[in-house]
Amino acid sequence: MGSKLIDTHTHLDFPQFDGDRERVIERALAAGVRAMINVGADLASSQAALALAEVYPQIHAAVGVHPHDAKTVTKQVLGELRALASHPRVVAVGEIGLDFYRDLSPRDKQRQVFEQQLALAREVGKPVIIHDREAHKEVMAILRQWFKSSPELPGVLHCFSGDLTMAQEAIKIGFYISVAGPVTFENARRLRELVRQLPLEKLLIETDCPYLTPHPYRGKRNEPAYVKLVAQEIARLKEVSVEKVARITSDNAQALFALDL
Ligand SMILES: [Zn+2]
């Protein structure tokens, strides 16, 4: 099917896919998506992510608790996450981080749970998938510290929303920058400029489905097949072929998550 893409951030276990999950996955494969990383947002969805990864060879799991749900994290939850994280079908710890935009968990609790899950990633020796919304400074401060203790363990800043200086610093400490559907939006001038300036060798692509549906399907449910629209926009911005974007971002994902494809 031409280009082979890796969607590095999906939530296929979410109820939005309960009616047609199997067809959504088939459409993704037909559209040239050869692997997907299904990312946990809380303990239940982390378990569901692993369950999907055990059924579909193209789906790999990440397990973690999103900052929105930091308030649900107890010692017991951390223990269960640890058991999940060591499973061979789990390729990363995520999504973890800070969200000071919606503030659905107290900020101190968000920080604590973020650090606990970074420590967990170090323990199991897997990379991290970072969610950062309106918390750029704090996220970078924490990652800088983490890098000092775990320089061999990189990660990705998913659906990146920071500026060029932040992206360059993140790259310097081993992180990839992931680009999602918003790069196709009409008002994405800043994000497009950022993509133009960053090396393709440091970019990943993702849908974050069911959210962040790219143009021209904006407003509808997102699905992994649409990751192609993100790749096409990056190709246009960088004036290279879609095949090249697919190949290099796939190589990047494969290297970061140690995917066995
Ligand atoms: Zn997500």
What would you say about this model in short?
By secondary structure, the chain is of the alpha/beta class.
Structural description of this entry:
- The protein is of the alpha/beta class and 261 residues long.
- It has helices at 21-30, 43-55, 75-85, 107-124, 136-149, 164-172, 189-197, 227-238, 242-257, and strands at residues 5-10, 33-39, 59-63, 90-99, 128-133, 155-157, 175-179, 203-205.
- Strand 1, helix 1 and strand 2 form a beta-alpha-beta unit.
- The mean pLDDT is 96.
Q: Catalogue the ligands.
A: zinc ion
How do the helices and strands follow one another from N- to C-terminus? Answer: EHEHEHEHEHEHEHEHH
Give the overall shape, derived from the CA principal axes: globular
Rg, rounded, reads 17 Å
**Oligomerization state of this entry?**
single chain
Average of the residue pLDDT scores: 96
Strand content: 15-25%
Report the biggest beta sheet as strand number plus sense, adding barrel if it closes: 8 strands, parallel
Strand order in the largest sheet = 1-2-3-4-5-6-7-8
N/C terminus separation:
17 Å
Strand pairing plus helix content: what structural class? alpha/beta
Given as residue ranges, the uncertain stretches (5+ residues, pLDDT < 50) are none
Q: What is the tally of helical segments?
A: 9
The proportion of residues forming helix, as a percent range, comes to 40-55%
Beta-strand segment tally: 8
